[in-house]
């Protein structure tokens, strides 16, 4: 895998380049938005990791210009701006994932690996599909077999995260951090309750189950057909 890191913090960038290379990933670096846009336009990458606040050209405008040029390389946005509205803005600007600072490199690496496997067309970036289940990230519409399914906001985020990681086990810790924004375990059954509600909505009146409980590990959404 070959990635581009656009980051103006030279110390942080040097650490990332070294860490990714140790993980077997070739990493190029650009220190500002303009050079990052040039490198991203002129070279082929599997994933781009882009800081949101950059000199010369901010990260969101870099992403928007890449998309305007027809470059649909998956992008993970790094930013100290981590509120829900900030993440929504980043995703709507063309980002595929959003990781607030500070972060653990292990999580960044895992997210980059997922994006590298999911590299595809713009439609695939905006619409997740598992079997006959579809989730549109922009319109927030969910359909199965053409039938609209109405979800509460938290249920939508839960399904979005599961479908984004389709075919992989999603642990309770991953759900707490990415769906509930908890960085600790509140020792409640909030996940089980929401998974149960979500399962009843996306599987009611359908023969093929999609959402599975992996005992002792977590959950997985997968089409067995």
Automatic annotation (TrEMBL):
InterPro entries hit by this protein: CheY-like_superfamily, OmpR/PhoB-type_DNA-bd, Sig_transdc_resp-reg_receiver, WalR-like, WH-like_DNA-bd_sf
Signal peptide residue numbers: none
Residue intervals of the OmpR/PhoB-type domain: 125-223
Claim: Manganese is one of the keywords in the record: no
Keywords noted in UniProt: DNA-binding, Phosphoprotein, Transcription, Transcription regulation, Two-component regulatory system
Pfam families per UniProt: Response_reg, Trans_reg_C
Domain Response regulatory: 2-116
CDD domains: REC_OmpR_CusR-like, trans_reg_C
Gene3D superfamilies on file: 3.40.50.2300, 6.10.250.690, Winged helix-like DNA-binding domain superfamily/Winged helix DNA-binding domain
Protein name: Response regulator transcription factor
Organism whose genome encodes this protein: Ferirhizobium litorale
